[in-house]
Write a structure and sequence with these properties.
With about 325 residues, the protein is an alpha/beta fold. Helix 3 links the parallel strand 3 and strand 4. It is built from eight helices and nine strands. It has a single domain, classed as Rossmann fold. Strands 2-1-3-4-9-8-7 form a seven-stranded mixed sheet, with helices on one face. Strands 5-6 form a two-stranded antiparallel ribbon. About 30% of the residues lie in helices and about 15% in strands.
Length: about 325
């Protein structure tokens, strides 16, 4: 066969391979994780380490690509382009990364295309008049000062909704700075509570303040109403939202059900399939202690030693079915 007779079939084969590669790439769900700079004490608010644990646990999930940006907002103006989900773990309030320098507009463009939006721990808090309406629209809830509160307490999660984020999750109890009494849409429209627990009376021991208490939250706790500390949201444009108020304590990653909720949520946000039994990702203590921010204070190994004696980090709810 002459060379020119081989050219056409070779070109067609090459085009077919390129088309197949493009289609496979198009089917890949891209999750962008944005980790804020260091904050709080040792093994607290470990933004970088937490995001990199998520990346580690999802690295072998077929059809999923995770990009982690550490130290603050991505310098690349195109970092969010093509994202199927954007998740922020950072200092909140007026210093929130997402509300600086026109970034809400940047996010609005991505959210308008149907991308998912999620925030972890302090990242769920923004000022009511500066990001509040956007977070309510994109994530379905946020921490509103003088309405929401941030006590440390052991929450016991004994039942879960029928939702992909709860696939394979078993009852568990974890001590954390679980924010609650979040600002949600009227009638919880579009919101599915994922983790809910009754807050004990001791969560109301502090005086009223922007983060510590107010008459409305005191009524809710006194009435024994379940408080939603993690939730899923479905937007009218098909986009999704996820809020998770725990993760003050980095060592809570030791709890397999705690981390399964977060990992499942990452997939769900990006509209990737969540396995029937959820994402199982065994993590050693050594892995959990990698990529920590450099902070002054106690040695992480000393804190870990104490945590190993504190079963609230890792134990299921006793007697739960």
């Amino acid at each position: 066969m002459k060379c020119n007779q081989l050219i056409k079939p070779c070109i067609l084969a090459l085009l077919w391979v390129c088309s197949l590669t493009t289609n496979l790439k198009a089917d890949t769900k891209r999750i962008v994780l944005i980790a804020g700079p260091p904050s709080h004490g040792v093994l607290q608010h470990e933004h970088k380490a937490g995001c990199m644990l998520i990346e580690r646990c999802l690295q072998d999930v077929s059809g999923v690509e995770v990009d982690v940006y550490t130290g603050g907002w991505p310098e690349d103006p195109n970092a969010l382009e093509g994202a199927d989900a954007v998740v922020v773990f950072c200092t909140g309030g007026g210093n929130h990364l997402a509300i600086q320098e026109g970034r809400l507009a940047q996010l609005s463009k991505v959210m308008g295309g149907g991308a998912g939006f999620g925030c972890l721990h302090y990242g769920v808090e923004v000022p009511k008049d500066r990001g509040g309406s956007e977070f309510l629209e994109w994530m379905g809830g946020y921490f509103e000062t003088n309405w929401s509160v941030n006590p440390h307490w052991t929450a016991e999660f004994t039942s879960f909704p029928d939702h992909p984020i709860t696939n394979g999750v078993q009852p568990f109890a974890v001590n954390d700075e679980w924010y609650f009494h979040m600002r949600f849409p009227d009638n919880m429209k579009g919101v599915t509570p994922i983790l809910s627990a009754v807050a004990p009376e001791k969560t109301m021991e502090r005086k009223d303040g922007p983060h510590s208490g107010n008459p409305e939250v005191r009524k809710a706790v006194a009435a024994g109403l379940p408080q939603h500390v993690a939730w899923a949201y479905e937007r009218s444009n098909g986009g999704r939202g996820f809020g998770f108020t725990g993760l003050h304590n980095h060592l809570n990653w030791r709890n397999p059900d705690f981390r399964k909720v977060i990992l499942n949520a990452m997939l769900w946000l990006a509209k990737a399939e969540v396995p029937e039994n959820g994402i199982d990702c065994p993590l050693s203590d050594e892995q959990i202690l990698t990529n920590l921010d450099q902070k002054r204070g106690r040695n992480p190994l000393e804190i870990l030693r104490d945590a190993r004696q504190n079963q609230s980090f890792i134990s299921p709810v006793k007697g739960a079915k």
